[in-house]
Amino acid sequence: MTSLATYRRSVLHAAHLPVYDFLAPSFIQIPRASRVRYISTTRKLAAIPDQSSNTPNPGQSASSNAPSLKKPLTQAQREFLSQAFRVNQAGELAATLIYIAQTPPIVASHPHLRPLMKHMYDQEAGHLETFNTLLAKHRVRPTAMYPIWTIAASALGWGTAIMGREAAMACTEAVETEIGGHYNEQLRVLVDMVEQMEESGEEVGNELKELMSTIRRIRDEELEHLDHAVENEAKQAQPYELLTGIIKAGCRGAIWISERV
Ligand SMILES: [Fe+2]
Ligand SMILES: [Fe+2]
Known about the structure:
Bound molecules: fe (ii) ion
Region (Disordered): 47-70
Largest sheet: 3 strands, antiparallel
Helix content: 55-70%
Strand content: under 5%
Number of domains: 1
Mean pLDDT: 78
Binding site for Fe cation 1: 92, 124, 127, 222
CATH topology: Heme Oxygenase, Chain A
Structural class: mainly alpha
Pathway: Cofactor biosynthesis; ubiquinone biosynthesis
EC number: 1.14.99.60
Strand order of the largest sheet: 2-1-3
CATH architecture: Up-down Bundle
Low-confidence stretches: 1-22, 24-64
Binding site for Fe cation 2: 124, 176, 222, 225
């Protein structure tokens, strides 16, 4: 009896938790569904049978000005977006720290690279701000590896810059190759998600469309950094294959861990 009473108390407590986020677990959303924040997916009324009628007519079409009902994201979609926001924030944090560490030694030995280093850093800082905002807005926790990535990224930036301009650019080439591919994979999942929504008669909300366009823009800027690195003789780094191989493997490992931890 004691455990049943404890269970009932916990359910009642959960029902009054102030959770309004579309990424919150569905068992918490159910009692407060009217106050949950959605990522603006809606289902057209025409797709829903008339519950008040004793003889439902699935083929009956609703009028064009019928009100829409919102539909929350599925558990799998929420988990995907939470992981994506978390790993993207970690990646952008690392990118800004790499450029912060690389810039003084590189600019000291190659002053003409100052505008390029600043340009790439400014874009990374913008990306980080974007994902900081998304994490805060949707109450997604950052990766627990945040302090470790901070040290690792600073060490990587400083170490490659000390090796020279080519090694610093090879670092950028390797990182952007992995990150560009990572953003591409996220876009592929989002495109599939949107196609499924459209096929099932749901309208795709502006928030999801804006997210896709933001990730597409950031992906393109990462690939622009990759081009700058190659133009600045990244492939002349010694030992190029070993250096870029280690950095790419490190990026893949960091992405895998940051999605989960
Ligand atoms: Fe970035
Ligand atoms: Fe980048």
